[in-house]
Amino acid sequence: MKKIILFLLPILIILAIGGSWFALHSQPTPKATVNQTKLKPKPSYQPLTKAELNHNSKLTDCSIVYYAIKHSKIQRWQEVSNFDLGWQLDQYPIDNGIKVLVWPDMAIKKDAKLVQPNWFYLSATGQVIYHSFIVHSFRDDMTETTDLETIIQTLNTEHAAMKVRQMLPNMLIVKHKNPASN
Length: 182
What we know:
Blueprint: H1 2-25, H2 50-55, H3 57-71, E1 87-94, E2 97-104, E3 118-123, E4 127-132, E5 142-147, H4 148-157, H5 161-166, E6 171-175
Parallel strand pairs: 1-6
Antiparallel strand pairs: 1-2, 2-3, 3-4, 4-5
């Protein structure tokens, strides 16, 4: 009988260890349901809209400047492409719209404003005309025309709305009065 116990005891120990290991690792994992776990919503793209631009003129200016930097065929608009330095915009109301001078560097001082900057005209109907003075030339400004609808559509197609919104803190707007209203 002793021989049988000595023979069966190691087998029983091995079966007990193996059985407990199998019991631990073969338990079914609980399946999560939508109600049990809260899924974090993915940050979704927030496109630019005409309504948003109508309510936020600074965002409108950011969109127009961004479009000029990225899409204008007027080379001189690259002078204002430093997103870290930002921009200073001098706005002058004119007939049926606004003329906006675009200076590189939001902290630019008056004595640094020596050469005529790039500028754009925004009409009350949403037409945008980009202008650029040709340095060391007696020719007319180079111009390029588009509209807010095209700008919005292009920026949304490129998913650039977030980049445009990130421009807001780096843009200083200086509003001037219409000289005729004095």
